[in-house]
Amino acid sequence: MKILIIEDEVDLRETIKESLLKEQYVVETASDYATAFEKVSIYDYDCILLDIMLPNGNGLDLLEELKRTGKSENVIIISAKNSLDDKVKGLALGADDYLTKPFHIAELTARIKAVLRRKNFKGKDCIEEANLILDIQERTLLVNHQNVHLNKKEFDILNYFLSNKNRLITKTALAEYVWGDHIDQADNFDFIYYQIKNLRKKLEEANAQISIETVYGIGYKLTEK
């Protein structure tokens, strides 16, 4: 799961980031309007935490852009402004939730998980496909009710494939989703190949009834056997 924190207050931004990293999320940040606009224009996120008061811009204007591109339903507004008008406008623009500062990180995390369940898993904590059960909250995989150990990246890759079954996933899209904007520092996609190779081996050894097919020169596709 990839989350973008749009917040100009350094201490709060870093506190939220560290907390979400501990929850095994891929986390990116933006501290001003221009950076945030660039990120949401280029990348897709499972959840966006959006402050209203930003340097060089207003978060509600950014929310209008997200609504125009169909990306506003996964936004949680985090703001020091406890204004009813701002709440009404934010929710009308498609924001999923509105949290007033100061707040407890535990409450924010709970709201993020609720957004992710509604957006990606139809309110459920697990994805069930063929003879697999992927538990998103516990980050576990069961195949034929037997636990299969996955490292963090393998879990995130499988989660992404299961959420996009039968869709062609390009190497670039997969890398951006699992590694975030740090992917810009990579020279090639060899690291994806090795993670996919290890994941395939574990799935085959567990007799999983799915396969990750290579579409040469483009990427991968998950299909049921």
Automatic annotation (TrEMBL):
<dbReference type="Pfam" id="PF00486">
    <property type="entry name" value="Trans_reg_C"/>
</dbReference>
<dbReference type="InterPro" id="IPR039420">
    <property type="entry name" value="WalR-like"/>
</dbReference>
<feature type="domain" description="Response regulatory">
    <location>
        <begin position="2"/>
        <end position="116"/>
    </location>
</feature>
<dbReference type="InterPro" id="IPR011006">
    <property type="entry name" value="CheY-like_superfamily"/>
</dbReference>
<feature type="modified residue" description="4-aspartylphosphate">
    <location>
        <position position="51"/>
    </location>
</feature>
<dbReference type="GO" id="GO:0000156">
    <property type="term" value="F:phosphorelay response regulator activity"/>
</dbReference>
<keyword id="KW-0597">Phosphoprotein</keyword>
<dbReference type="GO" id="GO:0005829">
    <property type="term" value="C:cytosol"/>
</dbReference>
<dbReference type="Pfam" id="PF00072">
    <property type="entry name" value="Response_reg"/>
</dbReference>
<dbReference type="InterPro" id="IPR001867">
    <property type="entry name" value="OmpR/PhoB-type_DNA-bd"/>
</dbReference>
<dbReference type="InterPro" id="IPR036388">
    <property type="entry name" value="WH-like_DNA-bd_sf"/>
</dbReference>
<dbReference type="GO" id="GO:0000976">
    <property type="term" value="F:transcription cis-regulatory region binding"/>
</dbReference>
<keyword id="KW-0238">DNA-binding</keyword>
<feature type="domain" description="OmpR/PhoB-type">
    <location>
        <begin position="124"/>
        <end position="224"/>
    </location>
</feature>
<feature type="DNA-binding region" description="OmpR/PhoB-type">
    <location>
        <begin position="124"/>
        <end position="224"/>
    </location>
</feature>
<keyword id="KW-0902">Two-component regulatory system</keyword>
<dbReference type="GO" id="GO:0032993">
    <property type="term" value="C:protein-DNA complex"/>
</dbReference>
<keyword id="KW-0805">Transcription regulation</keyword>
<keyword id="KW-0804">Transcription</keyword>
<dbReference type="GO" id="GO:0006355">
    <property type="term" value="P:regulation of DNA-templated transcription"/>
</dbReference>
<protein>
    <submittedName>
        <fullName>DNA-binding response regulator</fullName>
    </submittedName>
</protein>
<dbReference type="InterPro" id="IPR001789">
    <property type="entry name" value="Sig_transdc_resp-reg_receiver"/>
</dbReference>
